[in-house]
Amino acid sequence: MEIVEVKDKVFKRFISGHQIKQVVQEIATRIEADYKGQNPLLLAVLNGAFIFAADLMRALTIPCQISFVKYASYVGTKSTEDVKELIGLNEDIKGRHIIVVEDIVDSGITMDHLLRDLKNYNPASVKLACCFLKPEAFIKSFNIDYLGMEIPNDFIVGYGLDYDGYGRNLPEIYKLEN
Ligand code: IMP
Ligand code: MG
Questions:
Q1: Does 109 sit in the ligand 1 pocket, CB within 6 Å?
Q2: Number of helical H runs and strand E runs in the chain
Q3: Omega of the bond prior to 169 within 30 degrees of 0, cis?
């Protein structure tokens, strides 16, 4: 589909399922090379990252585990400064090699918050795998170790990303028509 309606807005197809698949495989290949014998713990950020995390984990052929945290800063199509931890860690990550798995970094406020919180648990290492980055919106300074692709500063839905909870099930990425 070229054009979709999600809730009350119109979106245009922007990134194909094929491109997404390639990006996920590239990240998986790099992680496998870096984490041999280290049993990393993927830490996926709910809700948006659930599809990317599932695909990334299936693409990994090294032993690994997954857990979830839930952070939210978005209301509608706007990022806010008010980051909330909605579901926290429920296991000991002390001494573990953590790969935070996120769908998209926009301002970076949410991820900055999460990365700071994680340090308090004394993990052995923390790296970040992220499907999309909006460099024009990014105002923080953390490094994205495994980045899928940079995108313009537009609002997108699909592949786990939502507009007011809708559109996550779209298998491709759609961009808001202005
Ligand atoms: P940040 O704190 O501004 O970096 O926002 C990050 C979070 O906002 C991400 O984890 C997403 O859940 C959500 N988000 C950012 N940009 C978009 C978008 O274009 N579409 C849908 N959700 C987004
Ligand atoms: Mg998210």
A1: yes
A2: 3, 10
A3: no
pLDDT band at residue 45 under the 50/70/90 scheme: very high
Q: Is 104 in the pocket of ligand 1 (CB under 6 A)?
A: yes
Which residue intervals of 35-162 are DSSP H helices? 50-59, 109-119
Identify which ligand lies nearest to the alpha carbon of 108.
1
Read off the CATH number of the domain in which 40 is found: 3.40.50.2020
Give the integer Cα–Cα distance in Å for 172 and 53. 15
Q: How far is the CA of 162 from the centre of ligand 2 (A)?
A: 9
Q: What is the pairing mode between strands 146-150 and 125-133?
A: parallel
Sign of CA dihedral 31, 32, 35, 39: positive
pTM above 0.85, yes or no: yes
Report the half-sphere exposure of 89 (CA within 13 A, side-chain side): 19
CA dist 126 to 10, 49, 61, Å? 38, 17, 20
Please give the C-alpha separations between residue 56 and each of 66, 92, 98, 141, in angstroms, as whole numbers.
11, 23, 14, 25
Is 73's pLDDT higher than 90?
no
How far is Cα 95 from Cα 144, in angstroms, rounded to an integer? 21
Q: How many domains are there within the chain?
A: 1
